[in-house]
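task queued by scheduler; priority normal; single chain, no ligands, no partner chains; default sampling; output format set to structure tokens
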Amino acid sequence: MNTRPAIDESPGPVSLAVAFNQDSSCFVVGLDTGFCVFNSNPCELKVSRGRPPPQSTYTFKADQGSEDFNAGIGAAEMLGRANYVALVGGGKNPKFPTNKVIIWDDAKQLPVVTLEFNSQVFQARLSRSQILVALLNSVSLYAFSSPPKKVSSFETADNPSGLCCLGAKIVAFPGRTPGQVQIVEIGTGNVSIIPAHSSPLKAMTLSPNGEILATASETVRPPSTILIARNRFQHKF
């Protein structure tokens, strides 16, 4: 079963996911052969755990002694420039079961934390103190500890894109009604529900300072922004 469609249809390896780290200094690419980590500027391949994309517009300076996963990674998330990467299996030949989140220590080249669920994981986000996991109809927040401790869980509308954002003070994800956005304050647990769109959400991203949340829906219209300041949420188009 192909658990994550390809971003493009070019000859392999195929890109299944891409995500910047918290300050956008690096980005990780999930491939049907493993994953790669790139420096953003200049664009340099720093780590390859699988066959990397064809070299064209980047410099190859990757770790030559890497483990070849030779299997798919459908979602990947870095923790700053640290050794930890959250991985979820994907593609036609997943590296890991698709109902698990693997926290991979790339220095040791082995999993150090595993979270297992009863259904497919669509996305995982990392910070130094939290892990956020998106399933089809829910998101769960965990303390980044060993073992991880569940802090809270919330129902969502169908979320096959795994939309969720993890900031220092808030988490954001789709509401239970299509088009809604839920924002939860980590410290207090306070929940705000914002009717951002009239159709299901298609994209969501949080600014690095955690003060602006941008969302887009399936319909053709300008994206919306949600201003987050002093624990007050203001919805703007």
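post-processing summary
- The longest strand covers residues 110-116.
- The mean pLDDT is 86.
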